[in-house]
């Protein structure tokens, strides 16, 4: 499984992904699910992936190939708007899903579904955050719903619902996605460290911060413990009805 | 959907269920999902239900009928142990599921799955808490895992994982299941008020407390608000890594 979350805030976008993939419980590996593309000053794009690894890896590979070969119709680095980027990414994902699905016989029951979160901004454009489905269609984050999740989204949703608003600072946003991930890590073994955190500042047009957080990261552990402690203390303080 | 949770603690058992049922998003009703059976001083049993309403209602009706008709083999009020009670409830659920499944043609895609939480104690016996599946098989809560959930269990799990231990007091346990339900109510519209809360004290052999909590319950609302407030305050206090 996977957990990826992206926030669209006034100050910028904050993205966090885990790295665990598994083909059955007895076959667990670490794969990056966060991919960034930059032309500093002109555009910045980040893509997070969930679902079938063969589908998402091939999709990213094709997107990269289109950039490298300067394919004007398929390069997300030359597309004239973030909407056009979402369209290219969606079409590529749908195409790859369809091809791979075609190779797998129905009775094999291998899932080929995958989904992506796309975040980006072009010079003179607004920051945009999309969730792209297997079929290539997508939805977009708005001020009313300033975050998008893919994968195992339920455990980490309550904290986001309570603290995230468009006016949330980037520092608080980093804290919120890390705590959201912390709740997910505790409850679903198929979501696992290390984590990839990426911050894009509004109009920065580059990756402002990219950080890998390893399993032994002292800061993350301290935050996780402090949050548990704070929750237990808050629990004790609440009066029973 | 449904959310029901049962805790097995040293001091007793605490059970909480919602009451919302829906046949599609446009057909929402309120049905009790908490059923109690008492022979004060001899035994106390509570059953919570999730899944297909036709299956769970028929199951409870048959269990009640067997008690009323004094059916020695099928009455949960004369069975000689809680394990035997679990067996009867499981067999009845499997039988009803099988019958109803047989009436529904495969292409109709109507779900007949259902699950139950059974809690109870007999004189001279220990308290026992079971989760019973559609097929009639069951698992039991233990000191390592002192709670069981059915229905929409994910949103309300993090709080239970953090605060529930066998030594938790009944008062804290009531608070924990209500906060667990509160997180679920906020995130899943198909789980809804009113709630049914039941407390069974160890060796009490009767329902110690049974309470219906309505949507306008001032105490529950105050607790829900206080918890949101405490979470937001805790969030602000935590240092970012």
UniProtKB/TrEMBL annotation, chains A, B:
One CC-aspect GO term: proteasome core complex
Keyword Hydrolase found:
yes
Tell me the superkingdom of the source: Bacteria
Which keywords fit this entry according to its UniProt record? Answer: Hydrolase, Protease, Proteasome
Gene Ontology terms for molecular function: peptidase activity
Give the UniProt record's GO annotations in the biological process aspect. Answer: proteolysis involved in protein catabolic process
Annotated organism of origin: Roseivivax lentus
Q: What is this protein called?
A: Putative proteasome-type protease
């Amino acid at each position: 499984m996977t957990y990826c979350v992206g926030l669209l805030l006034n100050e910028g976008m904050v993205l966090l992904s885990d790295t665990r993939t598994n083909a059955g419980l007895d076959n667990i590996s670490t794969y990056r699910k966060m991919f960034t593309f930059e032309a500093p000053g002109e555009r910045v794009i980040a893509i997070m992936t969930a679902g079938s690894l063969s589908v998402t890896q091939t999709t990213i590979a094709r997107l990269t190939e289109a950039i490298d070969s300067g394919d004007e119709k398929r390069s997300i680095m030359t597309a004239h708007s973030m909407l056009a980027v979402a369209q290219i990414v969606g079409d590529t994902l749908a195409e790859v899903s369809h091809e791979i699905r075609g190779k797998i016989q129905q009775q094999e029951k291998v899932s080929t579904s995958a989904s992506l979160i796309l975040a980006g901004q072009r010079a003179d454009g607004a920051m945009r955050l999309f969730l792209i489905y297997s079929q290539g269609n997508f939805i977009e984050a708005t001020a009313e719903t300033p975050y998008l999740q893919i994968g195992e989204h339920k455990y980490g949703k309550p904290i986001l619902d309570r603290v995230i608003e468009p006016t949330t600072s980037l520092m608080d946003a980093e804290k919120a996605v890390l705590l959201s991930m912390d709740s997910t890590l505790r409850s679903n073994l198929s979501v696992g460290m290390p984590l990839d955190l990426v911050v894009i500042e509004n109009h920065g047009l580059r990756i402002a911060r990219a950080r890998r957080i390893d399993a032994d990261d002292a800061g993350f552990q301290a935050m996780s413990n402090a949050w548990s402690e704070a929750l237990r203390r808050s629990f004790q303080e609440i009066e029973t009805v």
